[in-house]
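Incident log, entry 3
Record: MORN repeat-containing protein 3 (217 residues)
Problem: checksum mismatch between cached and fresh output.
Input:
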Amino acid sequence: MPIVKHPRATEPLWHEWDRKAQKHGLRHTVYAINGDQYTGEWMDNLKHGKGIQVWKRTGGIYSGDWKFGKRDGYGSYSIPDPVTKEYKKVYIGWWKNNKKCGYGVTFYPSGEHYEGEWSCGLRSGWGRMYYRDGSIYEGQWLEDQPSGQGMLRLPNENRYEGGWKDGKKHGPGKFFYLDNGQLLEGIWAAGIPKCGILIDFGRDEAPAPTQYPIPKV
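Fresh output:
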């Protein structure tokens, strides 16, 4: 009985190309049309897992966690210094849906830096801000502004403790004038003290006390 050989079905070449194009698992560097590049893990053609992204236009580098194509989890973002070309950290911390979310530290070009909580890319929750002039604010934040309860310590060690709103002193608070040994306790509105009581506070230890003590009422 003769043996009949049937021709093997050939698969269209584009099927093989399509399989190779599907990115899943760990891949070497993949380049985008605009010159951006990514090295790391994929799932269903989306960056997912651990990976490093380099943006050609800015030179920025993100190294950390990804979830369905977006920065999500823990990671750091750095940019090159315009003069030295050395990479400087901009943000180290947690991300969600491509935005800073959770605890993280940001370094600003002016030399200031913030460490604390974030929400949707904005400082929100508890945090500490180190300003360029040496002042330090520690307390609550809302939508990138001090809001709630917090303390601002000035370079001369004078400090304010109390309420804040939209980045300004607001509500009950205390201002300690440690340089001259006085304390103002009162109510602030939009950064301006509206009413309060001024008393001596540590006047004997103050470096520059007032000439006369405040008389008792």
